[in-house]
Amino acid sequence: MPSLATIGNELYTGKRSPDIVGHRRRWLAVGLALVIGSLLVLGIKGINPGIEFRGGSQFTVSGAATLDQQRAETVLADLGAGEPPRVSTVGTDSLRVQTGELTPEQTDQVQQGLADAYGVPVEDVAATFVGPTWGAGVTAKAIQGLVIFLVLVSVVMAAYFRTWTMSLAAIGALLHDLVITVGVYALVGFEVTPASVIGFLTILGYSLYDTVVVFDKVRENNAHLLNQNKRTYAEGANLAVNQTLIRSINTSVTGLLPVASVLFVGAFLLGAGTLRDIALALFVGMLLSTASSIFIATPLEVVLRERQAPIAKHTRSVLAHRAKARAAAGAIEDDAEDLPATREELGVGVVAGHHLGTAAQPKRRTRGRR
Length: 370
Description:
By secondary structure, the protein is α+β, with helices and mostly antiparallel strands. It has helices at 4-13, 24-44, 51-54, 69-79, 104-118, 132-161, 164-188, 194-221, 233-243, 245-269, 273-305, 309-329, 343-346, and strands at residues 48-49, 56-61, 86-90, 94-99, 125-130, 191-192. The strands form two sheets. Strands 3-4-2-5 form a four-stranded antiparallel sheet. It has a two-stranded parallel sheet with strand order 1-6.
């Protein structure tokens, strides 16, 4: 079995070349289906907003003798305090109980009831109230930050790559990652807290970073596109995806390992709710970012670029020239134009990591002996 380094070298040189961009309509259809599915989940099930967004009363029981959540639910049910409480464990000996807004008298009763139920002094049951106004402010600021971020990213990328197609494709992949991540939150029922919002905004930068790396290689491969007739724009883009594939996977694995440890160990085993909120957004978002830069951003950019007249004309010219050359060689029949291009036809001959060593060094002049 070839090593990862060997596979990476073969992908870079074109010896091994999965036709990812060639199946661009398939990948874009899958991405669109996932986005629509996420929107349907959001519309039907909705997100689970944390107390910071919906407002209400929160009680924290410290040093509890047991973590039986049913006891807290019984205390609130006996009080008849309206909506069912949301009970979660925090650490190894604490519970967090969230419910709707309570009057001061009801708050005192719940504190005493929780203290009796869990065998702790009343002083160890902390009560706080969170108003929905603060949550509304956080939501407004998050949306404002998202809009400003998207506008600035569009302008900067359009200026850097000198084309609007890469800018639009990067924003499309970014929105794809964001919508599906929020859809996952709605599907699993995790609370959306300010920590979750921070996680959502963080994955935007990660998604953009991975996409820019791939696009930079796309631009490099197609720098003199119209001056050659060996490969089309889509084939140059597909080569770029393959050349950066191993790097994207390595970057993703390196970033996902610590996030996964926070999510599965820190959140599920230790019961750290805040860590779980932000770790899930980062884990799903980083995983999607790597996939979208390969299967969404680049294919979408190729679809947009092929709508431009010079690129479309060049593509037809390359395919016609290739079919004519194949027909002249007598190796194929009438379907020559539909066959995938070979490595020789693409003009890929660079060997990654190959150099001349000391033979490439300039020769020193030596003085003759006297």
